[in-house]
Specification:
two-stranded antiparallel sheet; alpha+beta; 4 helices; six-stranded antiparallel beta sheet; endopeptidase fold (from Nostoc punctiforme)
């Protein structure tokens, strides 16, 4: 009897919906389809953000980093939002917070930004993945990863819904 295993990470529902609505590959004589799901052009902004964020898992944290060679927290969100075609963000967590429409956690969708607060100042930013999880470039010595939201002193922001 064969054991069935589940993948370590399950894509958030928005990404699953976008992949499910993508056209099936043709069975022509062209090259074999890539194993990576391709989002259709009508995929939601949130699905595009999550798909882009996942590409950089394992990239090292680099202070002031804003490229796939190394990211800091706001460099990561800046890069992901730009390459998902959602927004051009500045390279500072609090500056990103000031540009976003603040929303309650109950309205947050995968792809929104999570701002870690010290008073009314955002010192860290991450991408909401849903289910209490986030994509983040957390700190020196760590890599971009999917991790639990680790504070209750946070706010959520969006500019796409």
């Amino acid at each position: 009897m064969r054991a069935t295993t589940l993948p370590d990470l399950v894509a958030p529902p928005a990404l699953m919906q976008a992949v499910a609505s993508s056209p099936a590959p043709s069975s022509g004589d062209g090259p074999a389809p890539d194993a990576t799901p391709i989002l259709s052009s009508d995929a939601s902004a949130g699905a595009r953000i999550i798909a882009e964020a996942r590409k950089y898992l394992g990239v090292p944290y680099v202070s002031d980093g804003a490229t796939p060679s190394g990211f800091d927290c706001s460099g990561y969100t800046m890069w992901v939002y730009a390459h998902a075609g959602v927004a051009q963000l500045p390279h500072f967590a609090d500056a990103q917070r000031q540009l976003m429409h603040q929303i309650p956690q109950s309205a947050a969708r995968p792809g929104d930004l999570i701002f870690y607060l010290d008073g009314n100042y955002a010192y860290h930013v991450a991408i909401y993945a849903g289910y209490g999880m986030q994509y983040a470039a957390p700190a020196p010595g760590q890599d971009v990863k999917l991790e639990p939201i680790w504070s209750s002193d946070i706010s959520f922001g969006t500019d796409w819904h």
